[in-house]
């Protein structure tokens, strides 16, 4: 009666492969969305806190010796997320800790975290970048980043209209080496870190003269940026 069981249920040498990597991404994304929804109100309050200089300053003062570690965490977090402005943190650091300690703390944290993000993007590739960077930003800046190299990132980090923290991810997809990205990272970020740390440490007020000077420097950076992009476009055409 059971002699034809192999005919009814034929054997096969094919193995069923479970897409564990895709399954892991789905599970991780689902858990992340669930946690984000569950803690949406505290998360919103935390993002609002990062934009309030007085609140950040008072909080760092209250922490005492632990304050620098918290500041490092907050600065690193805003670099990783990319969508949070870090100027408030730079100013607060200068106000609480003084110019030189705050300057080196800000610079080393931002540059170090940027290099870490660059390395992660280089290691994990496009699957990570497409999840961390909005599609509009990636599609807009990826072609330029691939063609222009180190000079592109140096000028991009100096120019406020360019989303610098998202470019850390974009750089990981380009042929640019890690040390060349580090040079562009330092050279491009020093001016803004210097400025905002100085404002926090000395209480510099944006007088009309100082504001005009900043505008001139910004315009010169934009002109250099436009010249660089146009020159590279002509060379590659």
Protein topology:
Layout: H1 5-8, H2 20-38, H3 40-50, H4 53-63, H5 67-81, H6 87-97, H7 99-124, H8 126-132, H9 135-148, H10 150-158, H11 164-171, H12 178-202, H13 208-236
Helix pairs in contact: 4-5, 4-6, 5-7, 6-7, 6-12, 7-11, 7-12, 9-11, 10-11, 10-12, 10-13
Query: H/E series, N to C?
Result: HHHHHHHHHHHHH
Domain module count: 1
Oligomer status:
single chain
Terminal Cα separation, in Å?
77 Å
Q: Mean pLDDT, rounded to whole units? A: 77
- Report the radius of gyration as a whole number of Å: 24 Å
Helix content: over 70%
Structural class: mainly alpha
- Uncertain runs are none
Structure description:
The protein has 237 residues and is mostly helical. The chain contains 13 helices and no strands. Helix 4 crosses helix 6. The model has no long low-confidence stretch (mean pLDDT 77).
Condensed summary:
The protein is mostly helical and 237 residues long. The chain has helices spanning 5-8, 20-38, 40-50, 53-63, 67-81, 87-97, 99-124, 126-132, 135-148, 150-158, 164-171, 178-202, 208-236. The chain has one domain (42-236).
